[in-house]
Amino acid sequence: MEKKLLMPKLRPEMEKAVLCAWLKEVGDEIKSGEPVYEIETDKVVTQVESSYDGVLKSKLYEEGDTVDVLLPVALVEEKQEAV
C-alpha cells in the first residue's frame, strides 16, 4: 500500500519549510523512525523520519524547494506482511 510522507508542522505558526536534503534515494528501503529528508525553517534544520517501513517510491519535490506544511513530499510503498 502506498503511503505519503508529509511536510511536518513543527510549530503552530509554521506555514512552510525548505526541503534542504534527501537522505534516501528512490528505491531505497526505509524503516519507521529512520530519517528520510532534512528541512529548514526560519529557526532550525531538522531531519524528518519515516512513519512507515517500505521502499521510497518517489520524491515529489527537489532539494531547495519550499513546501507548504502537511503537503506530501514523498511516497513510500509499504511492505506487506506475510499472512
TrEMBL record:
The record's section on Gene3D superfamilies has: 2.40.50.100
UniProt keywords (A-Z) are:
Lipoyl
Q: Does the keyword ATP-binding apply?
A: no
Q: Name one GO biological process term.
A: pyruvate decarboxylation to acetyl-CoA
One GO cellular component this record assigns the protein to is: pyruvate dehydrogenase complex
According to the entry, every stretch annotated as the Lipoyl-binding domain falls at: 2-77
Output the SUPFAM superfamilies linked to this UniProt entry. Single hybrid motif
Please name the PANTHER family in this protein's record.
DIHYDROLIPOAMIDE ACETYL/SUCCINYL-TRANSFERASE-RELATED (PTHR23151), DIHYDROLIPOYLLYSINE-RESIDUE ACETYLTRANSFERASE COMPONENT OF PYRUVATE DEHYDROGENASE COMPLEX, MITOCHONDRIAL-RELATED (PTHR23151:SF90)
Protein's UniProt name: Lipoyl-binding domain-containing protein
From which source organism is this entry? Johnsonella ignava ATCC 51276
What lineage does the source organism belong to?
Answer: Bacteria, Bacillati, Bacillota, Clostridia, Lachnospirales
